[in-house]
Amino acid sequence: MVNTKQSNAWKEYAYIIIGATIVGLTYNIFFLPARLAAGGLSGVSTILYELYTINPALSQFVINIPIFIIGWITLGKDFSIKTLLGTFWVPFVIFLSADIPITVTNPFLSALYGGLILGAGLGIVYKGSGSTGGTAAIAQIVKKFTGISSGYSQFMVDGLVVITSIFVFSFELTLFALMAIYISGKAIDIVQLRTSATKLVMIITDEEEKVQELIQTGIDRGLTKIRSVGGYTKMDKTMILVVAEQTEAVKLKKLLQEETPEAFTIFISASEILGRGFSLDKYYGQKF
């Protein structure tokens, strides 16, 4: 148990370092060259660089100090230690990659690809239960007390920064910056939820034994039965829930259409599945 906890802890720190590295590189490759204040502390540092040529790595590190203290108080010691790592690592990467030869100055391309890569980086950091400091930490605080997803809380906080940038940059660049943070917010949620082709299948049928046999022998999946009542017929029915991979769902659909065409079936995309057969080995450690 102790080894498992230590392994998970090291994995979380690795997530933070990898994600923070991506965030730092994205800033120097996409946002600073295109003059996009794409929200957050990076947006603030871009504005300060435009107005006073203050080194972005330095400004981000200095401004993060009071925000880190707030995070320590509201989010707890463990989160704050990880935030400290992200807070240090992002400006460190920005400092090291300041003269990187690969840059994108086109604002549309920077907003599109920069937003995607930034969101992926932040999502990886969040999977490590950490933060890159700055307004990312504020977004995590918003998420904790409101229940809003990380992506949308990041969008709300960063939006305030971007709107203020209209007084420094052109209105067109501000719109591109808003586009970037919207894309990054979506990317954050995709990374955190590991959106996949996994399907939740809901089957309402009068032939529960037959459907159960189709599921167990046809795609080798477990299932859950829920007793229900038809809203129109008032008759007792059974709703069967089963989670399946994309290929299994296609096969099950074909079997149901052939064997029980009157079954009422709903296929729903499932963002993340935890448990036996998905996050754990299907056969209790036996891999076939």
Structure write-up:
With 288 residues, this protein is an alpha+beta fold. The chain has helices at 2-34, 40-52, 56-75, 77-96, 107-127, 134-146, 150-164, 171-193, 208-218, 246-259; strands spanning 199-205, 224-229, 236-244, 264-269. It has a 4-stranded antiparallel sheet with strand order 2-3-1-4. Strand 2 and strand 3 (236-244) form a beta hairpin. Helix 1 (2-34) packs across helix 4 (77-96), helix 2 (40-52) packs antiparallel against helix 3 and helix 3 (56-75) runs parallel beside helix 6 (134-146). The protein is elongated, with a radius of gyration of 24 Å. The mean pLDDT is 84.
Helical proportion, percent range: 55-70%
Q: What structural class results from the helix and strand content?
A: alpha+beta
The total count of helices amounts to 10
Strand order in the sheet with the most strands: 2-3-1-4
Outline type: elongated
Gyration radius over CA: 24 Å
C-alpha termini separation: 26 Å
Strand content: 5-15%
Largest sheet: 4 strands, antiparallel
Number of strands: 4
Q: What is the string of helix and strand elements?
A: HHHHHHHHEHEEHE
